[in-house]
């Protein structure tokens, strides 16, 4: 819920199951979650979340750890009023959800139907670093097929995501959006496929809407074909760094002879939709790593009903004048500035996020939640895994990390990186959603910020708070914005706030917290 908001795509069907299991099993006995070994028959017709049973316990674990520490003491103050499953863990709402062949047959798809369906590619906009071998591009994405699902079946599936609201009761545009997302989620990933790409210089208003961060430029050449060295994984994913050639003629600029980002368009062979812009990023400069939900767009994931509609049915809407702030950064920061959009939203919905970002914010590379959860560490901390990957790729860059307080992984990972890599983390900007939005009743933990230079981070309330900062010189705090950090659990919306936050939680606050947690568990988890 509060933490790994983006797995909401995993949560929504779970919520459905939750309602079902609440009806079926009225007893108060907590459900014991038994981690189920991973089964990965290919190809699967299923949302990724459901393919991998390990994600079930994954989510549960996160909630539990969120409630540990200060949060747990807040809860235990309530003693026996707490439903046992709050303390012992969230029931496994994912159980009995059909997987693999069961889903495939429930959709009535035959292998021959599928064989006749064109192969599609999702190419996630890549970034590249400069190495002794030249430019090294991280190609990543997914190969899949979209089954021909009948419209009535599609509406059934969409209704499973829309808890508490019928598809037919939504305005037409929202119905279409919900159907679009349902189609994107119910795809058949294609394992064991060889992938190749065609690269060519991207014109200035390239594939990705706005021209790109800082002074991104179109290289004079570099057109070439690249064969990805591995077949796709069973989940259809590909993800590896591949060196590209400096083809003769007016080629690519070397990373150590330009400060500009170079843009290359990449087309996946054999697919009309597997195109994206790659960003060749020089070794030094600023990279802005930005989350998307509740910082670049209005999601309100902390209000389950709103979060659901904003994610699943309504068109994406920018958060206030945040696009102006990014456009200003893109113009005013040095030419070497690179934008990277890193969200833990599942890969299947990447297109909708890209579509929104490129219409609204500067062009840049992307990371979303990969389907391949076989790396247990990555499963447990996908955001940190992705953050470490990009930090390792640019050991000399300065990173500006942007998100909001309603992600507990952000609240851990961003300050952790600042402690671990003090020379690389330039600024951390966190929108305090609970200070401005009474609907955010989930506490956030500021303990990770203890000991960091207080000019290196800022909790803010409106995009304008970010104006006039000297980011290039590491002055990331707007002195007029009171910070109020307790270095513990906080939540302004329910009054866990200021110096009193740690010790003097009012009982009404405890009550609201508990109600919020329980409501969210029932509704979302
Ligand atoms: C640029 O990088 C290449 C490859 O690492 C290296 O061979 C070359 O000497 C560098 N040039 C400069 C001017 O540093
Ligand atoms: C999808 O299936 C319907 C009937 O179930 C059929 O009329 C339609 O042509 C199919 N579309 C494609 C693209 O195969
Ligand atoms: C993929 O390419 C490799 C190397 O060329 C080849 O050995 C393998 O058979 C190919 N796989 C498929 C499924 O075509
Ligand atoms: C930034 O890049 C543009 C080209 O996009 C160039 O005209 C300008 O001189 C560069 N600025 C600096 C400070 O290098
Ligand atoms: C890339 O491959 C395509 C065929 O897939 C071919 O038409 C084109 O000439 C190749 N380009 C280069 C630069 O090799
Ligand atoms: C590519 O070749 C051109 C011309 O030979 C050279 O100026 C440039 O530095 C080279 N770029 C890379 C990326 O090696
Ligand atoms: C692109 O795919 C076609 C078949 O779909 C194949 O003939 C061609 O060789 C591929 N091109 C490259 C560069 O891999
Ligand atoms: C992909 O190609 C289509 C068709 O040319 C174009 O409309 C779209 O903007 C491109 N998108 C990206 C991300 O490259
Ligand atoms: C859904 O919408 C996105 C963004 O508008 C678009 O790129 C994508 O092709 C659509 N997907 C389907 C399955 O219609
Ligand atoms: C997982 O992370 C732990 C702690 O960071 C580390 O000790 C371990 O080696 C990692 N395992 C793998 C397989 O990367
Ligand atoms: C480029 O990125 C790769 C992959 O993250 C990393 O292993 C390598 O060290 C980086 N190279 C340089 C010169 O930073
Ligand atoms: C800090 O506390 C003050 C006073 O309660 C409040 O007005 C302000 O919004 C808080 N600042 C942030 C960033 O939440």
Itemize the secondary structure elements and their pairings.
Layout lengths: L7 H17 L23 H4 L2 H14 L2 H7 L7 H5 L11 H7 L4 H5 L4 E5 L2 E5 L2 E12 L5 H11 L10 H14 L2 E2 L6 E6 L22 E4 L9 E7 L18 E7 L6 E6 L5 E5 L13 H9 L9 H11 L5 E9 L3 H11 L4 E5 L6 H5 L1 H12 L4 E7 L3 H13 L4 E7 L1 H4 L7 E2 L11 E4 L28 E2 L16 H17 L2
The site of one 2-acetamido-2-deoxy-beta-D-glucopyranose (NAG) has 3 residues, from loops.
InterPro entries: APP1_cat, Mg2+_PAP
Protein name: Phosphatidate phosphatase APP1 catalytic domain-containing protein
Keywords: Signal
Keywords:
single chain; 525 residues; alpha/beta; globular; disordered N terminus; binds 2-acetamido-2-deoxy-beta-D-glucopyranose
Fold and architecture overview:
Residues 286-432 form the Phosphatidate phosphatase APP1 catalytic domain. It contains 17 helices and 17 strands. With 525 residues, the protein is of the alpha/beta class. It has a domain at 1-56 and 69-96 and 286-333 and 375-525. The strands form 3 sheets. Strands 1, 2, 3, 4, 5, 6, 7, 8 and 9 form a 9-stranded mixed sheet that branches. Helix 15 links the parallel strand 13 (398-404) and strand 14 (425-431). The longest helix is centred in the first third of the chain and has 17 residues, at 8-24. The N and C termini lie close together (7 Å). It binds 2-acetamido-2-deoxy-beta-D-glucopyranose (12 copies). One 2-acetamido-2-deoxy-beta-D-glucopyranose (NAG) binds at residues 198, 223-225, 269. The site of one 2-acetamido-2-deoxy-beta-D-glucopyranose has 5 residues, from strand 6.
